[in-house]
């Protein structure tokens, strides 16, 4: 990122004159664009006056120089950081370990179809988020959008549910790190590993966001290299490089492409229910793709970084998940006993099972190390996301003001500490009774991500209605989502259905009150938070379209001309392509 040079440079220099001329041309272009975005009744002259007033008495606008007012959080995430954060946040334990459940229930083909189907939902949600977050790039974007486009009570309920989900997930990651290390040794007790990584991750989140972005970039890059290497390895094994000889589609013929299913004694009905279960599992696994919206408020150039992340990262995630699931289905039969192995946390990982079945002795240890790095990265992301959600809620007066306090480096340190404290729940994993309570708590929070996706889509529908009311064409937006508004309605309907049916196993083969509570209490919790803030704000259920706020936080961005330096070295061009 390169901004224009400061005022006061030599006026007589030819490069400076060319720079000023270019800046003035860009100012006029931006002025024309802002006119179409602004509130009704604000003329071009009004805009010019406002822009001149904001720039100072000398008329040298921030737009011309490229400087922005210092915010509470800093815009220090580069384009490569944004892309890798979204990619790395989704590639985690859900991929490396969570694929075992849909494989053994729905079979290789059933699981593959369900993940492809859920991929259409992921594409829809990220398209909706991309259009809004590029137009109004703020921290904790989708909770802010729910508040401004729908209602403050919906924004508060969405934000608190989402924060609680990530905070409890942080406790999960802390409890899992030690279990992954136990693949090698039990010499260190689990509580000690929890304490060590709790302190390390919390301390790491106290550094400015540029360091978080750099750490996540490299860990995400390790994940990408590991998965690409695994896919190439699987291709070689399928073609006969392993001890099993040419595998091909052997396991699709015996035991077959469709799994045994669940619950029902009727084979076809059981397989259908198994497929539905894998569909819901896929929805859980894909959660995290929306994190590009969290980091939009700290992107150095959100107008360029966010659309690029949306366009590239989603397809890469789908490629990694579907590609991994395809090859795992070729190398691991759905009735493999190792899928039910409980010797260690990673013992049932289909990645490690596929490697062991192919007879490669050292590679399982290497992949276990990758999984360990993945979990540390996930814990780091949990605290980052949770703290930015609290920061966003506080800035929009939905949480105590103290949560928006930041360090000089732009870190919301109190929000970081509050999120990190929830990590203490990880110690529940060290006792039998606590472990059961902890698992129940995880089930409660898991549905929070579904609410987030639902309200991202609903917010986008309202956003498009507000644009139409203002007379603003979506063709003029910095990023235009594809196939809208159809995809937004499709995603809203599908997410509503998933929220309702995700706990269907509580009703069969016989009703289980505890399973029902774990699956559906989050819905009642959401309704409770919504009702509480509805009473506090005494607001409409949904904003009138003329009251939808699409101006706050956007004006500062409109006043800046973002000038990115083109990659010059081979190394810069390499990262420009990769990230």
UniProtKB/TrEMBL annotation:
Top-level division of the source organism's lineage? Eukaryota
* InterPro entries, per database record: AA-permease/SLC12A_dom, Amino_acid_permease_CS, Amino_acid_permease_fungi, APC_YAT
Annotated GO molecular function terms are:
L-arginine transmembrane transporter activity
Annotated Gene Ontology cellular component terms: eisosome; plasma membrane
How this chain sits in the membrane, per its record, is: Multi-pass membrane protein
Question: Family assignment?
Answer: Belongs to the amino acid-polyamine-organocation (APC) superfamily. YAT (TC 2.A.3.10) family.
- The protein, known as: Amino acid permease/ SLC12A domain-containing protein
């Amino acid at each position: 990122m390169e901004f224009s040079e400061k005022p006061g440079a030599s006026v007589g220099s030819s490069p400076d004159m060319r720079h000023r001329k270019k800046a003035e041309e860009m100012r006029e272009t931006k002025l024309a664009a802002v006119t179409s975005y602004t509130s009704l009744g604000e003329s071009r002259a009004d805009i010019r006056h406002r822009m001149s007033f904001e720039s100072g008495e000398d008329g040298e606008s921030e737009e011309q120089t490229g400087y922005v007012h210092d915010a509470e959080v800093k815009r220090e995430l580069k384009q490569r950081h944004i892309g890798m954060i979204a990619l790395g946040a989704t590639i985690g334990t859900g991929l490396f370990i969570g694929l075992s459940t849909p494989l053994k229930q729905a079979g290789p083909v059933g699981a593959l179809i369900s993940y492809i189907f859920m991929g259409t939902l992921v594409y829809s949600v990220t398209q909706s988020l991309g259009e809004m977050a590029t137009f109004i790039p703020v921290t904790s974007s989708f909770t802010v959008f729910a508040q401004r486009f729908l209602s403050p009570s919906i924004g508060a309920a969405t934000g608190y549910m989402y924060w609680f989900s990530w905070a409890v997930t942080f406790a999960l990651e802390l409890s899992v790190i030690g279990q992954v290390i136990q693949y090698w040794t039990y010499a260190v007790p689990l509580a000690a590993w929890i304490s060590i990584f709790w302190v390390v991750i919390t301390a790491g989140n106290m550094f400015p966001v540029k360091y978080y972005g750099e750490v996540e970039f490299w860990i995400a890059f390790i994940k990408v290299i590991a998965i690409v290497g695994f896919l190439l390895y699987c291709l070689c094994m399928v073609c006969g490089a392993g001890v099993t000889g040419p595998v091909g589609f052997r396991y699709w013929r015996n035991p077959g492409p469709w799994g045994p299913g669940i619950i029902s004694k009727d084979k076809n009905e059981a397989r259908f229910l198994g497929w539905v279960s894998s569909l819901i599992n896929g929805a859980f696994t894909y959660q995290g793709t929306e994190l590009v919206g969290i980091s939009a408020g700290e992107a150095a150039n959100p107008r360029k970084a966010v659309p690029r992340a949306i366009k590239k990262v989603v397809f890469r995630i789908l490629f990694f998940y579907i590609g991994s699931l395809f090859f795992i289905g070729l190398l691991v039969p759905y009735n493999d006993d190792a899928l039910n192995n409980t010797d260690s946390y990673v013992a049932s990982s289909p990645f490690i099972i596929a490697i062991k079945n192919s007879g490669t002795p050292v590679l399982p240890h290497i992949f276990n190390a990758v999984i360990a790095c993945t979990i540390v990265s996930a814990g780091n992301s949990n605290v980052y996301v949770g703290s930015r959600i609290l920061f966003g809620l506080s800035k929009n007066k939905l949480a105590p003001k103290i949560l928006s306090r930041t360090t000089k480096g732009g870190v919301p340190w109190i929000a970081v500490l509050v999120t990190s404290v929830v990590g203490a729940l990880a110690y529940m994993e060290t006792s039998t009774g606590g472990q059961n309570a902890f698992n129940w708590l995880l089930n409660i929070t898991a549905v929070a991500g579904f609410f987030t996706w639902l309200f991202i889509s609903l917010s986008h529908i309202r956003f498009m209605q507000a644009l139409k009311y203002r007379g603003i064409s979506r063709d003029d937006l910095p990023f235009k989502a594809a196939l809208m508004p159809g995809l937004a309605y499709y995603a809203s309907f599908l997410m509503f259905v998933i929220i309702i049916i995700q706990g269907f196993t509580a009703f069969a083969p016989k009703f289980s009150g505890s399973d029902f509570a774990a699956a559906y209490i989050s819905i009642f919790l959401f309704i409770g938070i919504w009702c509480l803030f509805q009473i506090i704000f005494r607001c409409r259920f949904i904003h009138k379209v003329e009251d939808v706020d699409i101006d706050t936080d956007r004006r500062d961005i409109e006043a800046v001309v973002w000038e990115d330096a083109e990659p010059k070295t081979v190394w810069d061009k390499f990262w420009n392509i990769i990230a």
